[in-house]
Amino acid sequence: MRCFSKAILICLATVFGCTKEHVVEVDTTFDTQWTPTFKITGNNYHRIQFVLDPPPRKTLYRNIVDYSIEYRSLNLASYSVFRRFLMNERPIPDLRLFFLGQANLPEDSLYIFRLVATHRDSTRRISADTVVRIPIIRGRIIRSVRLFPNFFVQAFGFANGFLYALSNNSLFKVDVSTESFVSLSDSVWPDDRSLSYYRTLALYGQTVFIVEPTRIPGAANIVKVFDVSPFRLRTSFTIQAPQGATLFDLCVDGDALYALWIQGRVLDQQITKHDAVNGRTLQTYPAVSRTSGIFDGLFSDGVNLWATYWWLLDNRFVRIDPSTMTTIEEHRNPIYSTSKNAAWDGPDIWIWDLEHSTFSKVHPEGL
User: Fold this and answer.
1) Pairwise CA distance, residues 254 & 335, whole Å
2) What burial class does residue 222 get, using C-beta atoms within 10 Å of its C-beta: 0-12 exposed, 13-18 middle, 19+ buried?
3) Residue 279 binned pLDDT confidence (cut-offs 50, 70, 90)
4) Which residues, at least 6 apart from 242, have a Cβ–Cβ distance to it below 8 Å?
5) Nearest CA among 239, 233, 242, 235 for reference residue 256
6) CA 206/CA 312 separation, integer angstroms
7) pLDDT of 116-145, one tens digit each?
8) pLDDT given for residue 17 in this prediction
9) What is the per-residue pLDDT for 24?
10) d(CA 271, CA 242)
11) 344 within 8 A of 158, measured Cβ to Cβ
12) How many Cβ atoms from other residues are within 10 Å of residue 262's Cβ?
């Protein structure tokens, strides 16, 4: 009886195709006559739209389950799916303009876009490729310098024409003209490597200031002062945090150090001014408050302070009057990845692009 039941199960499995895996092939048609128009616009990020021209027939429309937009850069063979667009999201059958959402694409670069329609019977129709140049809406990247893959930068700055970068507890001197570098020190903070991510660096002339912020709000932070050439420790001192505040970044301008603090909630921030010789607090400015976003970096151009501002995709450079700590102007940052590391090399702003592991010289929108 048991053998008879087993035989019946085997027969049923064979009939219904359960004994092996079946792959359902999707019928795909490449329609070179189908040429939708893609439109890239944006404000702080890219909005991608496409136009169905001419509009699909209502019978064809009813048979379409969804559209998806696919794109790739010119040097890649494979496409990425940007977003599926369900047809029931739009009640008007002959609507020609579809808003597909937002994407972060390198500005002033060429991308190939195409549209894919999926029908109720699972067949797919793919449009002709369209080459689109991504518009510049946030400024532009003038130049990028990549030292080696996975090079992580904790902080960097410029002095005497060279870039100095703090990475993995070591200080590197970088010649951006030749993209070459040398290590100045294997360990600038040998006593404790566990907090290395939080270190920040400030440069002025032949002097580099490296600080390891404490994790205790309101506590003093030790600043080590090094001579650049030859690289050696000159002195150290402490800077006192405002009550309940934690150090976020540091910059130097002549004989003054400016410190950016987070106090309590992330949106409550403060800037203090210190003596660059002994760390004595010279002035505490009123709290810098914003309705959204944070200042996540601080640097100086020799006249004004600059803060990098981050909120979702709205990354900006904010120029600040150091005498009043009021905002002079704001400019969009063409680098999307969040990174507090920015510096001034004399004529231009550089920022560490965390996503692509590159130093990028940028020309922000509006400058």
Assistant:
1) 28
2) middle
3) very high
4) 218, 261, 263, 270, 272, 284
5) 239
6) 37
7) 888 888 888 898 999 988 776 667 778 888
8) 45
9) 40
10) 9
11) yes
12) 22
pLDDT, tens digit, 9 for 90 and up, residues 247-277: 888 899 888 999 988 876 656 788 999 999 9
Amino acid identity of residue 251, one-letter, is: C
pLDDT value for 6: 46
Listed in sequence order, the residues at least 6 apart from 62 whose beta carbon sits closer than 8 Å to its beta carbon are 93
- With vertex at residue 234, the alpha carbon angle to CA 231 and CA 235, rounded to the nearest 5 degrees, is 140
41 closest CA partner among 87, 102, 111: 102
Its pTM stands at 0.66
Query: Which pairing describes strands 245-253 and 200-204: parallel, antiparallel, or unpaired?
Result: unpaired
The count of other CB atoms within 10 Å of the CB of residue 216 is 10
Give the 3-state secondary structure of the chain: CHHHHHHHHHHHHHHCCCCCCCCCCCCEEECCCCCCEEEEEECCCEEEEEECCCCCCHHHHHCEEEEEEEEEECCCCCCEEEEEEEHHHCCCCCCCEEEEEEECCCCCCEEEEEEEEEECCCCEEECCCEEEECCCCCEEEEEEECCCCCCCCCEEEEECCEEEEEECCEEEEEECCCCEEEEEECCCCCCCCCCHHHCEEEEECCEEEEEECCCCCCCEEEEEEEECCCCEEEEEEEEECCCCEEEEEEEEECCEEEEEEEECCCCEEEEEEEECCCCCEEEECCCEECCCCEEEEEEECCCCEEEEEECCCCCEEEEEECCCCEEEEEEECCCCCCCCCEEECCCCEEEEECCCCEEEEEEECCC
Q: How many CB atoms lie within 10 A of CB 71?
A: 20
